[in-house]
Amino acid sequence: MERLTEREWARHWQYEELPGLDLLRARYVRHTFPRHSHEGFTFGAVTGGVEDVSLPDGLVRAGPGTVVMINPEVPHSARAGVPEGWTYSTLYPSVELISEIAGAVTSMRGTPGFAETIVEDPQTAQLIHSVHRAAEEGNALAADSLLRIAVARMLGRYGSTLSARTPQASGAHTAALAKQLLEERMAEPPSLEGLAQVVGTSPFALLRAFKAAYGMPPHTWLTDARVRRARHLLDAGTAPADAAVAVGFTDQPHLNRHFTRIVGVPPGAYRRERARTYKTAGERPA
């Protein structure tokens, strides 16, 4: 396990026999996750303590026996809900993996998702823990089987078709233009005023429109996007110092701080786990 402090530990990794899936098992006490989102799904099951998760619809408190299900690109933050923190197992499956399982076990049309955020479901929570245990033991048959059983169970009980995103306000188009510009100029982004001028609005109007569209102000979204891109670079074998510069952080310590807060482990530990996975699988990233 990667040690964060004497009381905290975390492991964020991939198992080569489960493509399209990231795994995180951790205990956090003082660590807090800032507002961020994921490209894929998040399924979390707490084994001890309480995790407070802040979502667009409000706060949920996750304790043992509950399962938290977060759809792709939904902004959220998290922190300990009790002084002793929380211990949990989390699965991060890709959209493609969930779509594949949904196509095999449901009659859903469109993009599958989940209508509920938190449920009391000890059996599914145990399945999530068991996926981790099987993967850590190197039992590919059990890990793959338990993963598919868990996802099928969640889809059957809580699944729904995600509605297509439609503009919710007159500023949605402006926010989309601003997001595209930030993606293109991630390493050297403009100021808020400069960004507003380019997309043809005022700074405060852009702040309102961007938060309405993406659940975060532009600077928070940019930090999350930088960490997300840094993860892809680390997956491809880029050194943390080079990844920091490529995505626009001042230096590696800035990447370390933001990466650890959002991903839950430092970038060096994240990259080492990826290297271990590729070595076990007998290949290296391109």
From TrEMBL:
Highest taxon listed in the record's lineage: Bacteria
Keywords for this protein: DNA-binding, Transcription, Transcription regulation
Annotated HTH araC/xylS-type domain residues: 176-273
Pfam families: AraC_binding, HTH_18
Protein name per its UniProtKB record: AraC family ligand binding domain-containing protein
Entry keyword annotation includes Ubl conjugation: no
Family annotation (InterPro entries): AraC-bd (IPR003313), AraC_XylS_family_regulators (IPR050204), Homeodomain-like_sf (IPR009057), HTH-like (IPR037923), HTH_AraC (IPR018060)
